[in-house]
Amino acid sequence: MHIDRFLAVRTSCLTCGATLLLAVVGIMTPILCSAKTTRTTYRYTGDIHFDIAKIPFSRFGSYMAFSELSGSQESSSLSKLYLRNMRGGPSDAEHPAFKIELLREKKPISFSILASPTLLHLTAEGGGVDIFFSKTNRIRFRANGVSVSFVSVGPEHSEARENGHWELESNSGISEKYMLSALNGGLSISPATPDAPMAANFTPSSGSNGIEGMIETYDDKTVPSPVHGGFTSEQNAVKQEYRKWLNRMPQVSPEFGAGAELAAYVNWESVVAPKGFLDRPAMLMSKNWMARVWAWDHCFNAMALSFRDPNFAWQQFIILFDNQLPSGALPDTIRDATQETKYSKPPIHGWALNWMMQHGGYSDRKHLAEVYVPLERWTNWRLQDGDGNHDGLPKYNTGPDSGWDNSTVFQSGVSMETPELSAYLVLQMDTLSKIAHDLGKDSEAAAWAKRSDQLLQTMLTKLWRADHFVAIRADNGAAVESESLELYLPLVLGKKLPIPVREKMIEGLMRQGRFRTDHGFSSEALTSKYYGADSYWCGPIWAPTSMLLAEGMDSIGQKTLAENLRLDFCKMAQQNGVSENFDAQTGNGLRDPAYTWTSSVYLIFAHQLWASR
User: From the centroid of its chain, how far is CA 522?
Assistant: First the structure.
């Protein structure tokens, strides 16, 4: 079976004393160190390489990224390397701004690409280019033996500025300007013609073989700042920044260190600076094309960060509440230029916050006071707006509201009362009760606890059928036929569920040939006529559901099942990358190949496995 190569990482097996080259997300031979009774901890190195056709080359805070876009651009071009911009425009687009070409005698030449977390190296016959992000809005590059051309994608306006600088303003919908500067060598602009787009060409000076240049982004409110450091010193400074990031990553064992290196990088490069609707630095779901913050994905990113970077974790958790609507609802997604409110997402925030309080703190009065009212408003909106028929159960209006966009639960096309929605709100009200108690609001604490118990009993009475949960139509109360894993997520309630319910749920989950594969749980039963290997929420394995189920299993004493689930997920992701989801039967990555809730769940699971040994 062919598996795309993403990453190679050199590391040390701490228990064997041997240096190993692990091919992660490539054709990989698992190498296990000899077992010891003492726990060993992997040391992050940052010494990795990855395929930028799948994993963008970017940095913490930047809206720019380099990617190979061979699938969507002209097939005849020697270069597939593009500089992209995450600012503005639709978030499901690739946002190419410039194609990068290497030239000799004014003609494009072929080159190879080697990407690492802080340096992008292009190699051509007789020359090469080093590229890095010296700042979030500044890219520096140095070339030898070749010229470098930034070819505009779409119409651009160019204007010569002082000191040999050129300003290019995009007319393609991205509200950003680009300042191009030659620090060594020359810079000229080739205007657009009917046959060729505009290009900025960096060339060596007469008698020289080298080039050094820079490209910066800015808008009308900012202007580029002067360059103060040399190329090497600024490159070393970025390496140190990345080293500090790695020092704040969760501890993992050497067995999963290689995958943790990739996950750590993906989370680092996916962060953008505050702008527009983003009041804080924000970890996007991806800098491929899922370039937004979704209103449940962000919780898993916060949880992964909470072990060793609590302040940044809190920023990721609270960022959706910065955009809370007057009704109390949270937007479906946010990004710098847009806030989508057509849908919302499941209220897992109370569950996630309680988990973070157990693992990373946040029980001090400052954090509790900051989150209590926003979480209260979000909960009340879900309970009141979502119970239009007044039967005591909240509802989802559409599949996207549940996070399970095309789940078979929603095939009837009407609003649904689902068991996991009630389960999330039960846990959210438990968290509110705890916070209220710690803030000295004892009457409110008691009221939240009572409402939680009432919803749990209503859910069990109306949605439990002998040996399984069902979802019912909000308009007539009829149960829908579905073999979706979604109906097993109430397991996250743990010991709040009656023992017979827990036992039947585990039995249904683990029934041979139904959901469980060698890699995890399929999102639709393998035996369902709606199952598809790449059918989004009707088949693939997903990181968030894996974590919800693992936590539920842990809480009812099914430790072995939970540990095996974490182990299988980590093996799969280390082999096949941190994709948006995975083929349940092969483990191959699907959809967006650099997705942060997957990298975050990998880090959480790998840390939990390390801590349990």
Answer: 20
The amino acid that residue 67 corresponds to is: S
**Contact, 519 vs 572, CB < 8 A?**
yes
Q: What is the DSSP string of 113-150?
A: EEEETTEEEEEETTEEEEEEEEETTEEEEEEESSEEEE
Q: Is the pLDDT of residue 284 over 60?
A: yes
Q: Which residues contact residue 384 at a Cβ distance below 8 angstroms, ignoring those fewer than 6 apart?
A: none
Whether the CB-CB separation of 86 and 101 falls below 8 Å is answered with no
Q: All domains of the chain, ordered by start, with CATH?
A: 7-45 (no CATH), 50-231 (2.70.98.10), 487-613 (no CATH)
E strands in 306-442: 333-334, 339-340, 416-417
Radius of gyration of the chain (CA): 26
Q: How far apart are CA 612 and CA 233, in angstroms?
A: 41
Per-residue pLDDT for 7 more than 50?
A: no
DSSP codes joined into one string, 375-390: HHHHHHHHHHHT-TT-
Question: Which pLDDT score is estimated for 454?
Answer: 98
d(C-alpha 565, C-alpha 588), whole Å: 17
Is the CB of residue 549 less than 8 Å from the CB of residue 489? yes
Half-sphere exposure of 461 (CA within 13 A, CB side): 9
- CA neighbor of 477 nearest in space, from 378, 389, 354, 386: 389
pLDDT for res 166: 75
Which range (50-54, 136-140, 383-387, 514-518) has the least confidence?
383-387
DSSP E strand stretches across 25-163: 48-50, 64-68, 81-85, 96-104, 107-109, 112-116, 119-124, 127-135, 138-144, 147-152, 156-160
Contact 393, 417 (CB under 8 A): yes
Whole-angstrom distance, CA of residue 578 vs CA of residue 576? 7
Residue 428 has pLDDT above 70, yes or no: yes
